[in-house]
Amino acid sequence: MAKSFENEHPIKAFGWATRDTSGVLSPFNFSRRVTGEKDVQFKVMYCGICHSDLHQLKNEWGNSKYPMVPGHEVVGVVTEVGSKVEKFKVGDKVGVGCMVGSCRKCENCSVDLENYCPRQIPTYNGYSLDGTLTFGGYSDVMVSDEHFVVRWPENLSMDAAPLLCAGITTYSPLKYFGLDKPGMHIGVVGLGGLGHMAVKFAKAFGTKVTVISTSANKKKEAIERLGADSFLISRDPEQMKAAMNTLDGIIDTVSVVHPILPLLMLMKSHGKLVMVGAPEKPVELPVFPLLMGRKLVAGSCIGGMKETQEMLDFAAKHNITPDIEVVPMEYVNTALERLLKSDVKYRFVLDIGNTLNKK
């Protein structure tokens, strides 16, 4: 007999799931675990659609588990808390990002880097401690250990859910690699969901920002809408040559294979190129330009819980929110098709609270 996800746990849940690599989502009845003593249960109000959802839905990273309820930019309102929960109470606005668990004991966990824990439990497409699949935020209810729940600032709109992935993914490397100092000159490669957040945070830190893109038609929005200081077309050899040795660091948000050499040439000595996009194939890395200037190529993945809260508070203080298009749940498959074509400025957010209707 087929396993019943509806009766696996005590709490009835409803969302949209894909059953196979087609990636097509449709209504799905399942269940959530009972709220444990350290758990927070909340009603989902908004959930961002991340580019990584596309990869996972279609098994493009080779680790997809089905059925899959995506969504790791989840914002909602607390409906129940366990007896030992200290940080939250019923009625609080909260968020859950890319992870819902980690070992809490390893070297990374001990210094608030749960995002690098080898036993991290992803919000969806992973396994809970009891061995059952984790299901994400394209659903009506979530249950999570309070440690992996963040407080949503009062003056931040709840539909700014993409801060929980796109926000922290760009905030963390700017901070960690010291690219957050006023007067620095930072490059941002790609102007999508991640790129537009990188521009906003870098500007809020007081840096000068250059957007680097293959698409000339993004210049106006980069400068006028997002406040970038300058714009480089990466396919224009003259522009790229004129900008050589001018950048202190680069946040590279592009998730398809692209040439790295031109980016290395843009950086000053000791420049840092940080990859936050995730191309599915290896990129070519020429070493000579690294040697000639002691340059660094690095990677960064989301952030720990403490830093995620810090990022949200910073965003609230400086009024930094993602540029979003809020859509109803039934629109999700169309939204995913449009996302594949980069036809969104810059993030879709599902209005779960008002439009997720049980079929």
From TrEMBL:
GO-annotated molecular function: cinnamyl-alcohol dehydrogenase activity; zinc ion binding
Record-linked Pfam families: ADH_N (PF08240), ADH_zinc_N (PF00107)
Source organism superkingdom: Eukaryota
SMART domains, per database record: PKS_ER (SM00829)
Residue stretches spanning the membrane: none
GO biological process per UniProt: lignin biosynthetic process
Domain Enoyl reductase (ER): 23-350
Gene3D superfamilies reported in the protein's UniProt record: Medium-chain alcohol dehydrogenases, catalytic domain (3.90.180.10), NAD(P)-binding Rossmann-like Domain (3.40.50.720)
Stretches assigned to coiled coil: none
Keyword annotations of the record: Metal-binding, NADP, Oxidoreductase, Zinc
Cofactor: Zn(2+)
Family annotation (PANTHER family): ALDEHYDE REDUCTASE
Family classification: Belongs to the zinc-containing alcohol dehydrogenase family.
Protein name: Enoyl reductase (ER) domain-containing protein
Organism field: Solanum lycopersicum
